[in-house]
Amino acid sequence: MPRIGYHASHEQFSPRDLLEWVQAAERAGFPLAMSSDHFHPWSEAQGESGFAWSWLGAALATTSLPFGVVTAPGYRYHPAIVAQAAATLAQMTPGRFWMALGSGEYLNEHITGEAWPVREERRARLEECVEVIRALLRGEEVTHRGRIEVKEAKLFTRPDTPPPIIAAALSPETARWAAGWADGLITINMPDGKHGEVIRAFREGGGEGKSVRLQVHLSWAEGEEEAERNAHEQWRSNVFPGPLNQDLSMPRQFDAAARFVRREDLAGHVRISADLDRHLEWIAGDAALGCSEIYLHNVVRNQREFIEAFGERVLPAARSV
User: How big is the CA angle at 87 (ends 112 and 296), to the nearest 5 degrees?
Assistant: First the structure.
């Protein structure tokens, strides 16, 4: 079975609360954690957006967990700064930090005022950023002129071993393209098991033998109706296909788009159940796809109850399957 981690959602909780939750997750038996990286939340109801990189320093220092972060270089973050931030965390906590790089969403990246390119151009820009970041982590002095500009950049503080650079992909096409440069893949659960197609495309594109991580959006509560209601309140703005999801600029726009999303429309996007055994069945299905790590993101507010229930029932059962 894959190892089961805890996902820290900066869109939904204050950094202080998230620090408490990851410490509680470690005590409950979660062996891994990962973090989002947002400037804006997906909706006004989520209501938070702490700075992930400073929070990661605190989380790594106050737990013994390995951590990853999903981030987007090339817009609000220059790739040299991403490389420096990653090198610093990896140097302080050897073997405990990884980063997943993606092409980003306009929601977070438009704040610099830079034009938002089409998807193909965003991919090309990401590939340049990856090349720059890897060169800097190797200790090279980098000057690069292309879609991004770098002049005489060199990292003087670096870890002995560079952190893994994972590809964040939501489509088979992107996963197949990223397999050539990424150390592994991370994707999310999707309706009708389409994340399985993303994983297969990654392997077919050159990712065979590389790690596969899965972030699972779920809603658990003591009762079924409560789990459904809470998921709809917190996550209905996250069910849209790629073009809309990547091109809206503000939480209020996502809220407007989600106005007519019904509870039943969340099926597959969020695994909603009060039955812990049902969540175990879903995890077993993900394990069959060859996922090495699964990060559980309970998309609602009851984090303490979720951590305790899954730590007591789900994690031990998953290890014994």
Answer: 75
Of residues 222, 209, 202, the one with CA closest to residue 274: 222
> Residue 123: which region, alpha, beta or left (left: phi > 0; alpha: psi -120 to 50)?
alpha
Give Cα separations from 122 to 9, 73, 102, 129, 144 (angstroms). Answer: 24, 10, 9, 10, 17
As a whole number of angstroms, the distance between CA 301 and CA 295 comes to: 17
C-beta atoms surrounding 172 within 10 Å: 20
Domain residue spans of the chain: 3-320
Average of pLDDT values for 276-304?
A: 97
What is the fold, at CATH topology level, of the domain defined by 3-320? TIM Barrel (3.20.20)
The answer to whether 70 touches 100, Cβ cutoff 8 Å, is yes
Q: Angle at CA 314, nearest 5°, toward 313 and 318?
A: 125
Whether the CB-CB separation of 48 and 87 falls below 8 Å is answered with no
Q: What is the pLDDT of residues 38-69, one digit of tens each?
A: 999 999 999 999 999 999 999 999 999 999 99
Q: What is the pLDDT of residue 243?
A: 78
Phi and psi, residue 143, nearest 5°: -125, 125
Q: What are the CA-CA distances from residue 35 to residues 10, 98, 187, 204 (Å)?
A: 7, 11, 14, 28
Exposure letters 32-45 (e unless 16+ CB within 10 A, then b): bbbbbbbbbbbbeb
Q: Of the candidates 151, 118, 87, which has an alpha carbon nearest to the alpha carbon of residue 242?
A: 118
Is the confidence at residue 321, as pLDDT, over 70?
no
Q: Three-state SS for 285? A: helix
Write down the pTM of the prediction. Answer: 0.97
Give dist(CA 66, CA 93) in Å, integer. 9
